[in-house]
Design goal:
alpha+beta, two-stranded parallel sheet, 6 helices, 34% helix
Length: 189
């Protein structure tokens, strides 16, 4: 099956589903790179068996491209052995939003590069880092359009007031991801 978007080279998109501590993550990509990670909406925080679920592929394992394999390895490390994420390659991205030059792309790359595991920044701080201190609202828009959540850690962007702010996977998931990182960072310290 070939999805061709006008003007884009033809991609053979492959899909996989990972069973993670926060539910089923749907990932898609082609040979060139990762297209997106779709988050489930969480209605309750996982506890017990669910929260200790490793991050395993439950659908699509047989046709995974290299970027999907890298994505899976990275997410598995993120949930199970966070110290390893620093040494793992981030998969190549092949989403139109991350191809063309824009403020959104600059914000997402800045976030990926500069805001480390267990840290958080405000929308305003991220706007500063991306080179436009008055663009806090635009940073919010960039977070909403992030096609690769968790790897591009938009959950680490919070309000200046210290409140978590909104999140594509829902506020419960954002809180879970932030507390997961905080706990893991304390374990490593």
């Amino acid at each position: 099956q070939v999805n061709s978007k006008q003007g884009a080279s033809q991609c053979k998109e492959k899909h996989a589903v990972l069973l993670s501590p926060v539910g089923k993550l749907k990932i898609s990509g082609c040979e060139t790179g990762l297209h997106e990670i779709k988050l489930p909406k969480m209605s309750v925080l996982p506890s017990g068996a669910e929260s200790s679920a490793a991050c395993e592929v439950c659908e699509g394992a047989e046709e995974m491209t290299e970027p999907l394999k890298q994505c899976t390895a990275w997410l598995h490390a993120y949930f199970c052995e966070p110290a390893r994420t620093a040494s793992l390659p981030v998969p190549a991205f092949h989403h139109p939003l991350l191809q063309r030059d824009s403020f959104t792309r600059r914000v997402l790359w800045t976030l990926l590069r500069d805001v480390k595991f267990g840290e958080a920044v405000s929308y305003k701080q991220l706007a500063d880092l991306a080179g436009n201190s008055r663009a806090a609202r635009a940073v919010g828009g960039a977070m909403r359009s992030n096609p690769i959540p968790i790897i591009i850690p938009c959950h680490r962007v919070i309000c200046s007031s210290g409140q978590t702010g909104n999140y594509g996977g829902g506020n419960l998931m954002k809180e879970w991801l932030l507390s997961h990182e905080k706990l893991q960072k304390e374990k490593l310290a």
